Amino acid sequence: MHLDNVGFSISSRGLDRQEGVSEPAKGKLSGWLKGARSAEAESLTLADDPAQKVLLSNISLSIERGEKISVIGPNGAGKSTLMKLILGLLTPTSGHIKRHPKLEIGYVPQKFSIPAILPLRVQDLLAQTKNRLTAEQQAFLYQRLSVTPLLKKQVIHLSGGETQRILLARSLLSKPDLLILDEPMQGLDPESERWLYEFIDDLPPFLQCAMVVVSHDLHWVMRGSRRVICLNKHICCEGQPSDLGVSQEFKKLFGHQYEQPYIHQPHECQHHAPHER
Ligand SMILES: Nc1ncnc2c1ncn2[C@@H]1O[C@H](COP(=O)(O)OP(=O)(O)OP(=O)(O)O)[C@@H](O)[C@H]1O
């Protein structure tokens, strides 16, 4: 893989550079500056080596604790690749990434597969993750995601929806500072999808983590996000959902789905998993 002059940065805004934070923001952040955990990457480029094709370019991100960023873009836009850069699963050949040594990242990948011949029970899979939750938090998580009845099952025998719940539980066990969900709704029926979206919406305030969600569900993204990044090998536009409609690139990519600006309406009701009904 050859990397070529792509700018990418992710940082927990204001953690390492307090001089750049205005007075109100300082007050807002001061509660968690003591335990600051951040990651920054700059001047990375990523291109496919044989084809010399640039995969991502000129990307900058910053995210605050408790904030959720949604990433949208067409197939092949580089969304999963960007997630892998953030995670450190792809190594750039130019530029650099700085991560706080104690930054915990939870990840639900777009694709998850294990060899059919590998015997692996759900409890073994979950045991591979460092558990930083209290017993009470873990019990709450297992109850919300209905994990316990699945613990003895072989991972390869899980249904699509069960797999997603287990992967989500696994990503949360480490009590991540940053949670990355790459198209977490794949293979779910509409009811499970709706329930999982609502569960995800509750996570940043519950865990006080930052979250990046890759999604093709434009309606959910526009309804439930305060910040959206539209990616197509570079950042076409970013901002609040209502800001995106002015971008010509956004209109070109999503105009057929986009008629009126969506209004953000966070939900407030209690929800139960479809499997609990
Ligand atoms: N390791 C790699 N080496 C070379 N090319 C890669 C690599 N990983 C991904 N690509 C290419 O980069 C492009 C972006 O892929 P990526 O999976 O990031 O897209 P995506 O936006 O997540 O797409 P989708 O919505 O279809 O999941 C694709 O053309 C893919 O073939």
Please tell me about this protein's structure:
It contains 9 helices and 12 strands. Helix content is 31%, strand content 19%. The protein is an alpha/beta fold and 277 residues long. Adenosine-5'-triphosphate binds at residues 1, 48, 55, 73, 75-81, 110.
Topology order in helix (H) and strand (E) letters: EHEEEEEHEEHHHEHEHEEHH
Number of helices: 9
First-residue to last-residue Cα separation: 48 Å
- Radius of gyration, taken over Cα atoms and rounded to an integer in Å: 19 Å
Number of strands: 12
Note the beta-strand portion.
Answer: 15-25%
Contiguous low-pLDDT stretches (5 residues minimum) are 1-37, 261-269
Shape: globular
The overall pLDDT average reads 74
Task: Tell me the helix content.
Answer: 25-40%
Category from helices, strands and their pairing = alpha/beta
**Largest sheet strand order:** 8-9-10-6-11-12
Cofactors and ligands present?
Answer: adenosine-5'-triphosphate
Pfam family, one: ABC_tran
GO molecular function: ATP binding; ATP hydrolysis activity
InterPro entries: AAA+_ATPase (IPR003593), ABC_transporter-like_ATP-bd (IPR003439), Metal_Ion_Import_ABC (IPR050153), P-loop_NTPase (IPR027417)
Keywords: ATP-binding, Cell membrane, Ion transport, Membrane, Nucleotide-binding, Translocase, Transport, Zinc, Zinc transport
